[in-house]
Amino acid sequence: MSSTGAVFDRTIALMQDRLNLNSLNQKVIAGNVANINTPGYVSKDLSFDETLREALEDQVLTLVRSNENHFDQTDPVAAMRSPEVVGTGPVDLDREMVKLARNNVEYQYMVTMLNKKFGLLKQAVTEGAS
Amino acid sequence: MDFESSMKISSSGLTANRVYMNVLSANLANANTTRTASGKPYERRTVIYQSVAAEESFDKVLDNSIDEELQKVQVADIVSDGRDFRRIYDPGHPDADAQGIVLMPNISPVEEMANLVDATRSYEANLAALNTSKQLALKALEIGR
Question: I want to staple B50 with a disulfide (CB 3.0 to 4.6 A). Which of B13, B29, B76, B86 is the partner?
Answer without folding.
Answer: B76
